Amino acid sequence: MIEVTRLNGKGLTINSDLIEMIEETPDTVITLTTGKKIIVKESRQMVKNLVKLYRQECNSTDFVE
User: Do 26 and 34 form a contact (C-beta atoms < 8 A)?
Assistant: First the structure.
């Protein structure tokens, strides 16, 4: 799950596995596999980086209990 910010400033958590496409039009629009579109403040590159970081955390063997 990644944390992004809607244009109104409210935070939103998205399941990154559901992201189908990210566009800058110039606002950043995230299209989910469900067809839902979400406009966020973060840039396309920032969303990509958040997804990469999340996936690295999921694959890490250094879990703290």
Answer: no
Tens digit of each residue's pLDDT (9 = 90 or more) over 23-61: 999 999 999 999 999 999 999 999 999 999 999 988 876
The model carries a pTM of: 0.85
> d(Cα 60, Cα 56) in Å, to the nearest integer?
6
Per domain, the residue ranges of the chain are: 2-59
**65 vs 63: CA distance, rounded Å:** 6
- Contacts with 39 (C-beta within 8 Å, 6 or more apart), sequence order: 6, 7, 27, 28, 29, 30
